[in-house]
Each structure stands twice: as structure tokens, then as C-alpha cells.
Design a protein that fits this description.
This protein is of the alpha+beta class. It is built from 16 helices and 18 strands.
Length: 660
């Protein structure tokens, strides 16, 4: 795991703080960009709408002109020379029409023309001619390329029959027949022989066509000063006219343009984004052309607004760089001001850990750092106080360990003394009695039946007395080793029997029992009995008392055992000294069964030993159980502890052997 210094963390934090700053800046730039894009859409929509209206007006004007030509009688008569003159006059009035022609509906032949040759486009407009003739409607052709530099469109208007209010006669005298009066009603056409030739009203007999060059259309309709706008006239799937942006050399629209163009042709203006032929991203608006005879739309576009359009990139980079440098410099200064007291505290903490801290910790810095230094100073005082307490505790444990070693040594000696005493009693008291009984039985055996009955009975009586005496001596030794009454008749009877034994020494001793003693475990019974035994033994040997009382009190909550005498007493403070091994032994026995051990005494005022244990019956107390569990957890059972104690005692005994 990498451990970063405080300065590095401050720098990283400062750099991380630039992330939300950049996010906010990016959000503001994005909103500004959206605003400028919407403004761009608005201006493009205005231009597209203006151009589409101008184009619709241009086409409507020329359509009206061609419809007026189509209603002239010389055109309706399909008379070539007369129609030729009418077409020439019309072309002079409408110079934007590079050519005007009249086509017969029956044979699709040109009857009259003026300007550009119609034969160049007749083959390309056959479908539009059929539509105008059959549908009696105005049609507009697709763009037709005449040569490498010229493209045209053809506007076709049908010529229909009309009805006149006068009829012509067969008079050929050359008299003035007068002009035809053209009404709104259909009129018949005159035949060449002067006879009236009527036709069905409204029948399409021809088509008047006007040829319009796209270049002249662009010059007349598209603004010369477009201020960055590019304008295109498009139809379904094809490009008719373009000022740029869309490649004018291509007549096919890119696929991405088809949907907005179709929406505009259907009458719905649409704003969209596009990529022009030079790969430049542009915003565009498509608007319908309100001319019912041509499915056209106008696209007005301009270069899409960029992020750096209002702010130069170099200036923006310089501003950002200066901002980063200022933030980093501030982070370095603040990190140094913050890290300096923390480094001092870290050094003092290390000295405290190593135990080499000599000077008190003084609060440093401000804010949380000062609070930290104050808490560290308090902790240092506590640690030093605890160290002093631990040193004192260590000395106490060493003293207690020395006491325990001495206790083990003395206990071992007492065990050896007890073994020697028991061996001496058996040797001095029991062994002679058994030996005497053995000798007498052998003596009887050696008589071979010559002994009189009276002598035999006396000898057997003597042997019996010797064996009974030996038995009594053995019972006494066994009783001292393990009172049988503990297992047979219980704790009270065993203590009472021992009290009776003490009375035979001349000390007035009695047992007082209050309450019914509960059923206790063998360990508890033996410990209480040994405490009474040790206490009365100390009274006999050391107290110089003439009276002792053993009290056993039982309540619902606890068991209290008290051994009291009226002897010389002593100072309880000396009870912890190594020489007070009897008291230490009793204390250890009391703690082993979860009982408290209290000594109340003063010189000349007698002594009282009080043992109190919670009345839990024959179930071990929680403290005893916890003690045993802790021994098991620590990896040593009671047998292991006893073995260790015996080994230590043996070692102490061997060490003390030369002293003896």
C-alpha cells in the first residue's frame, strides 16, 4: 500500500478540485454552445423562409406569364408563325426565361419557339409533357444538364381550347373580319378555310414551355452577401441548386439529408445537423417552397458554432494554466503549514513509543491539529502514569512470585516433614504393635499344641489387643491424611470431629452451626475443612489462646465460615510476608473455590478468619468456572499446573538441600 505524504495529498486534492471546476466550466460552455446553436437555427430558418418565398414568387410569376401566353388565340390556334411572334414578344418581357416553346399535344412536335432550342430538352421532359397533357396541369421538370456548364429546368403550362362569342364566315372578299374577343368562356378555334371548327371546351391541345437556367435562377433568387450562409434548393432525393456546402457537382443528396428534406416537402420546417462535402459540421434548417406544382425545399445552413468561437484557444489555455499554477501553489503553502506541526507530533509520538520522550508535548498549530496535539499530550501523561503503574505492578508480581516460590519450597518441606512424621508414627507406634502380635503368634506356633487353653486364650487376647491398638493408630494417621467423614457424613461432622481432636490438646474449642449446610462438591468440602484445620493448627501453635470458636453460617445467598480465637493477635499487614505461609495457603484455598478470605486481627485482641462464598450448592461458582476455563484456554490443565508446581517444589527442595 502506498503511503502518501500530506503535501502529496493536498496536491492531489487540489487537482481533484479542478474536476468539478472543469465540469462546471464545461456545462457553461455547453449551455452557451446550445444557445448559439439555437440562434443559428433561428437565423437559418429566417433565411430559408425568405428564399423559399422568393422562389415561390418567382415560379408563380413565370407560371402566370406562361398561362397568359397559353390563353392567346394565336397560341391556341397552334399557328406556327403567329405563335412564334407571340413567344418572341413574351421572351422580351420575361428575360429570365432563356427559351419559350409551344408543343402540339397530338404529335409532341414543336409548333413555335423563341430563344433556346427546345429539342435539347424534349426527350428529358417527355414524362412531364404527358402529365401536363393528360392531367391538364402545370408541371416542372427535374434539372436537365445541357452541357458541362449549363443546367436548366422546364416549366410546362397546358394550352386548352376556349369558346368565342363570334363566328367566322366564308366571306373571303378581304373585308375586315375584326379581332377575336377573348372571354373567360371557352371559344372555338378558326379553321384555315374560314369555316367554323368547334372543339370540346377544356381539351388540352398543346403545352407552352419555359426554359429556366439554374445559374440565372440562383443569381436572381439567392442573396449575394450571405454572411456565411449556404443555401440549397432540393427536391425528393436530388439537388437542384446549391451555393456550397452540398457539392454542386453531385445531383444526389447524401442519405442523412433525405428525412429533413422530405419533411420540408411535406410542409414541415426542420432543424438538423449536417456534414458538408468538405467534412465541415454545419447546422441547417429545411423549409418548404410554397409552390404547389413542384415538390421543392430550401436548405439554409452555416458552420456549426464551436467551443472556441468566442474565446481563442491560446487565451483559454493560458487562463487554465495560470489557474492550475495558482491552485497548486496555494495547496503547497497550506500543506506545509499543516504538515509542520503534524511532523513534530509524529516525532514526539515515536519518542513516546520508544520511551525516549524527555520533553512534555506542547500543543501546536490550530484547529483540529491543536486538538490532536492536546489529546496526544494527555495520552503521553496517561502512558507515563501507566508505565509507572506497570513498573510498580511488575515489582509486586516479582515479590509475589518470590513468595510463591518460597511457599512452594516450604510446602515441599512440609510435605517431606509430614511424610517423615507419618513414617515415624507408623514405625514407632504401629510397627511395634504388629511386630509384637507377630512374635506372639509365632510363639504359639512353636509350642506345637503344648500350650494350655488358658495360656492360649491369654496369648490370643494379647495379640488381639496389639492389633486393635495398631488399627487405632492407622485410623489416626488415615484421618489426618483424608478425613473419612467428608465423604461419609459431610463437612459439619468432619469439622466437629477435628474440633474434638483439638480439645484433647487442652484448647477449649467448639463448633457453632447456623442454617442447613447445602450439598457441596468434594473440592469445596475439602478446601473448607483444610482451612479450619490450618486455622486451628495456627491457634494451637502460635496464638497462645485458651478458647477458639468455629462458626458455619448458611443463608440463601452465601456460606460464611469463621474461625475466631482470643489469642495474642497480630498485624494483618504482615500476612503478605513470606513467613506467613499458613495464611497464604488458606488464602489460596479460598480463592480456588471462589470464596473471599478476610483476616480481622490486632495485637492483643485476638484473630478472626472469615471465608465467604456464594451459596451455589454443589455447582461451581461463575468465578471458579471462569478460572478453570481460562486455565484450559491458556493451554494448561489442572494436572499440568500441579505437575509444574511439584517440579518447581522439587527444584526448590533440591536447591535448598545444601542449606539444610
Amino acid at each position: 500500500m502506498t503511503h502518501w505524504s500530506l503535501r502529496t495529498r493536498f496536491l492531489l486534492f487540489a487537482l481533484a478540485a479542478l474536476i468539478p471546476f472543469a465540469a462546471v466550466l464545461g456545462y457553461m460552455v455547453d449551455r452557451d454552445l446550445d444557445r448559439r446553436i439555437q440562434q443559428s437555427y433561428g437565423s437559418e430558418g429566417a433565411v430559408a423562409s425568405s428564399v423559399s418565398r422568393s422562389l415561390a414568387s418567382f415560379m408563380s410569376t413565370n407560371t402566370d406569364a406562361l398561362e397568359a401566353i397559353a390563353q392567346v388565340s394565336d397560341v391556341i390556334s397552334l399557328d406556327g408563325p403567329s405563335a412564334q411572334e407571340v413567344l418572341g414578344q413574351a421572351r422580351n418581357v420575361r428575360p429570365e426565361l432563356s427559351g419559350i416553346f409551344l408543343v402540339n399535344a397530338d404529335d409532341r412536335q414543336v409548333v413555335a419557339r423563341s430563344g433556346a432550342e427546345p429539342e435539347l430538352v424534349l426527350e428529358d421532359i417527355s414524362a412531364e409533357l404527358d402529365q401536363s397533357i393528360s392531367g391538364n396541369t402545370v408541371t416542372v421538370s427535374r434539372p436537365i444538364r445541357i452541357d458541362a456548364e449549363t443546367q436548366v429546368i422546364v416549366l410546362l403550362v397546358p394550352v386548352t381550347t376556349v369558346q368565342t362569342t363570334e363566328t367566322s364566315t366564308g366571306d373571303t372578299s378581304g373585308g375586315d373580319t375584326g379581332d377575336d374577343v377573348v372571354n373567360a368562356d371557352p371559344t372555338p378555334a378558326a379553321s384555315q378555310n374560314g369555316q367554323q371548327a368547334t372543339q370540346p371546351p377544356g381539351q388540352t391541345i398543346g403545352v407552352v414551355g419555359g426554359i429556366i437556367q439554374l445559374e440565372r435562377l440562383g443569381q436572381a433568387l439567392l442573396p449575394s452577401n450571405r454572411a456565411g450562409f449556404e443555401i440549397a434548393l432540393v427536391s425528393t432525393g436530388e439537388l437542384i441548386l446549391s451555393t456550397g456546402g452540398i457539392d454542386p457537382a453531385s445531383s444526389v443528396l447524401p442519405e442523412g439529408y433525405l428525412e429533413p428534406v422530405q419533411l420540408a416537402i411535406d410542409g414541415e420546417s426542420t432543424a438538423f445537423e449536417m456534414i458538408d462535402s468538405r467534412g465541415v459540421e454545419r447546422t441547417a434548417v429545411s423549409a418548404p417552397v410554397p409552390f404547389e406544382f413542384a415538390p421543392w425545399a430550401v436548405i439554409a445552413s452555416q458552420r456549426a458554432p464551436g467551443v472556441l468561437d468566442t474565446i481563442p484557444g491560446v487565451e483559454l489555455a493560458v487562463v487554465l494554466l495560470l489557474g492550475v499554477l495558482v491552485i497548486v501553489a496555494v495547496a503547497v503553502v497550506f500543506s506545509e503549514l499543516t504538515a509542520r506541526p503534524i511532523r513534530t507530533l509524529a516525532r514526539q509520538t515515536q519518542e513516546l513509543h520508544q520511551g525516549t520522550l524527555k520533553e512534555p508535548i506542547v500543543p501546536l498549530g490550530g484547529g483540529e491539529v491543536r486538538v490532536l496535539s492536546q489529546r496526544l499530550a494527555e495520552m503521553a501523561e496517561q502512558v507515563q502514569s501507566q508505565v509507572a503503574g506497570l513498573e510498580e505492578g511488575r515489582h509486586d508480581r516479582e515479590r509475589q512470585a518470590a513468595q510463591m516460590r518460597d511457599l512452594l519450597r516450604r510446602t515441599n518441606r512440609m510435605q517431606e516433614d509430614e511424610r517423615r512424621r507419618i513414617a515415624g508414627e507408623i514405625h514407632d507406634a504401629v510397627s511395634p504393635l504388629i511386630t509384637g502380635a507377630l512374635y506372639q503368634t509365632r510363639a504359639l506356633q512353636m509350642t506345637n499344641g503344648s500350650t494350655t487353653p488358658d495360656e492360649m486364650e491369654a496369648s490370643l487376647r494379647s495379640v488381639n489387643e496389639l492389633l486393635e491398638a495398631a488399627t487405632d493408630e492407622l485410623h489416626g494417621v488415615i484421618f489426618e491424611l483424608r478425613p473419612p467423614d467428608l465423604d461419609d457424613i459431610g463437612l459439619v461432622a468432619a469439622i466437629d470431629a477435628y474440633v474434638q481432636t483439638i480439645q484433647r490438646t487442652g484448647l477449649s474449642c467448639r463448633l457453632e452451626v447456623s442454617g442447613e449446610p447445602p450439598s457441596l462438591t468434594p473440592e469445596v468440602r475439602l478446601s473448607l475443612y483444610r482451612i479450619v484445620q490450618e486455622a486451628l493448627h495456627n491457634v494451637v501453635r502460635h496464638a497462645g489462646a485458651d478458647e477458639a470458636v468455629v462458626q458455619l453460617e448458611t443463608t440463601d445467598e452465601l456460606i460464611r465460615l469463621t474461625v475466631r480465637d482470643n489469642g495474642a493477635g497480630f498485624d494483618p499487614a504482615q500476612a503478605v510476608q513470606p513467613t506467613s505461609l499458613g495464611l497464604l495457603s488458606m488464602r489460596e484455598r479460598a480463592e480456588s473455590i471462589g470464596a473471599t478470605f478476610t483476616i480481622v486481627s490486632k495485637p492483643g485482641g485476638g484473630t478472626a478468619i472469615v471465608i465467604e462464598r456464594q451459596n451455589s450448592g454443589d455447582v461451581m461458582s461463575d468465578e471458579v468456572l471462569e478460572s478453570m476455563m481460562s486455565r484450559t484456554v491458556n493451554g494448561s490443565s489442572e494436572e499440568d499446573i500441579d505437575g509444574t508446581v511439584e517440579e518447581a517444589a522439587s527444584a526448590d527442595a533440591e536447591a535448598s538441600e545444601p542449606v539444610r
